[in-house]
């Protein structure tokens, strides 16, 4: 199977190559694609060097699947051209997520929504993915009324430039700034641009995408998204109110048997999820489970996941695996 990776030289594109190899996805020919300035550069996949090609050359090569991680404007321009050529696009940007004609997919939750006619499939926002993987089994059992989420997001979510900014600041070296402010020894309560309602675009992504993935527009959601100086993954404090009451032991049992979830919840031994432990793993880690004593039917949770893996590249590859398994490509 010919597979194109668009945006192959970026953090997520590089991670996509790694995960395709790790999971032994049936790639017969890799087509690495990037912007014009990267054409001709080499990338390595399974020990073999491949030259980066242009968008036009990638379409001409007729891959079966194209994994996109090249930004919203690139995807808006090029994903339809790939789709018109009969190539199934799995897009990691925000370009298509809220398009009512496109599926927004987390395989553990709603892969069944995909059909053969879907030629552009959207990969959700990283912080949304990890939250819904943890919450969906609880929603099915107890019915979610409201979610209050605060995120603590890794600089890797911004990209290479942000990682370099953090590393430069730690070394005391001047360099390009991905953020308006210093990130080392700091917390920046802004991810993406501010909207008219005072929320950032990232915060509203979590609201809108969660409802779409979980197929329930009645869930009330409010979000605060924050950038912190770590690199292993994103963390989230989630307060979730249910329609029905719950038993805490049953919640733990549900989560420990849910696909893609690892329960790390042992306060006595100080075991709880951390980016340090989530780094380079595909699961969503959940802990600090406790009742909210201020109101009924409400649970506090701490959710951590590697944002480059399950939050981006792994989820995209899992969608591709589903397409292959179901004969949809």
Describe this structure as you would to a colleague.
There is one protein chain. With 329 residues, the protein is α/β, with parallel strands linked by helices. The protein folds into two domains: 2-124 and 312-325, Rossmann fold (3-Layer(aba) Sandwich); 127-307, Dihydrodipicolinate Reductase, domain 2 (2-Layer Sandwich), CATH 3.30.360. The chain has ten helices and 14 strands. The chain has helices at 11-22, 55-60, 72-84, 107-110, 126-142, 160-171, 201-214, 248-256, 275-278, 309-325; strands at residues 2-6, 29-33, 42-45, 48-51, 65-68, 88-91, 103-104, 120-122, 144-153, 220-227, 234-242, 261-263, 284-291, 298-305. It has a six-stranded parallel beta sheet, with helices on both faces. Strand 7, helix 4 (107-110) and strand 8 (120-122) form a beta-alpha-beta unit. It is globular. The termini are close together.
Quickly list its features.
six-stranded mixed beta sheet, 2 domains, Dihydrodipicolinate Reductase, domain 2, 14 strands, Rossmann fold, alpha/beta, six-stranded parallel beta sheet, about 325 residues, 10 helices
Helical content (DSSP H or I, runs of 4+):
25-40%
Give the neighbour order of strands across the main sheet.
2-1-5-6-8-7
Overall geometric form: globular
Largest sheet: 6 strands, parallel
Work out the number of β strands: 14
CATH topology of the largest domain: Dihydrodipicolinate Reductase, domain 2
Task: List the SSEs and their pairings.
Blueprint lengths: L1 E5 L4 H12 L6 E5 L8 E4 L2 E4 L3 H6 L4 E4 L3 H13 L3 E4 L11 E2 L2 H4 L9 E3 L3 H17 L1 E10 L6 H12 L29 H14 L5 E8 L6 E9 L5 H9 L4 E3 L11 H4 L5 E8 L6 E8 L3 H17 L4
Parallel strand pairs: 1-2, 1-5, 5-6, 6-8, 7-8, 9-10, 12-13
Antiparallel strand pairs: 3-4, 9-11, 11-14, 13-14
Helix pairs in contact: 1-10, 5-7, 5-10
């Amino acid at each position: 199977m010919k597979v194109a990776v668009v945006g192959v030289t970026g953090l997520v594109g590089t991670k996509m190559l790694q995960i395709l190899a790790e999971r032994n996805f049936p790639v017969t020919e890799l087509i690495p694609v990037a912007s014009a300035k990267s054409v001709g550069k080499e990338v390595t996949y399974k020990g073999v060097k491949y030259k980066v090609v242009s968008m036009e050359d990638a379409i001409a090569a007729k891959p079966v699947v194209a994994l996109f991680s090249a930004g919203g404007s690139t995807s808006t321009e090029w994903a339809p051209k790939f789709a018109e050529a009969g190539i199934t696009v799995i897009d990691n940007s925000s370009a298509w997520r809220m398009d009512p004609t496109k599926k927004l997919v987390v395989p553990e939750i709603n892969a069944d929504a995909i059909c053969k006619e879907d030629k552009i499939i959207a990969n959700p926002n990283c912080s949304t993915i990890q939250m819904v993987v943890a919450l969906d089994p609880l929603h099915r059992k107890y019915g979610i009324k409201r979610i209050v989420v605060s995120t603590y997001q890794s600089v890797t979510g911004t990209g290479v430039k942000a990682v370099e900014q953090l590393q430069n600041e730690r070394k005391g070296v001047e360099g390009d700034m991905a953020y308006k402010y210093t990130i080392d020894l700091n917390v920046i309560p802004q991810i993406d641009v501010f909207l008219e309602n005072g929320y950032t675009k990232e915060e509203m992504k979590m609201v809108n995408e969660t409802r779409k993935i979980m197929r329930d527009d009645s869930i009330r959601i409010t979000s605060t998204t924050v950038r912190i100086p770590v690199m292993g993954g994103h963390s989230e404090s989630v307060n979730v109110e249910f329609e029905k009451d719950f038993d805490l032991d049953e919640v733990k049992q549900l989560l420990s048997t849910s696909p893609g979830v690892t329960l790390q919840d042992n306060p006595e031994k100080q075991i709880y999820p951390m980016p340090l432990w989530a780094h380079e793993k595909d699961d969503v880690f959940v802990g600090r489970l406790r009742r909210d004593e201020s109101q009924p039917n409400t649970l506090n949770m701490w959710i951590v996941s590697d944002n480059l893996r399950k939050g981006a590249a792994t989820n995209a590859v899992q969608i591709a695996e589903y397409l292959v398994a179901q004969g949809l490509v």
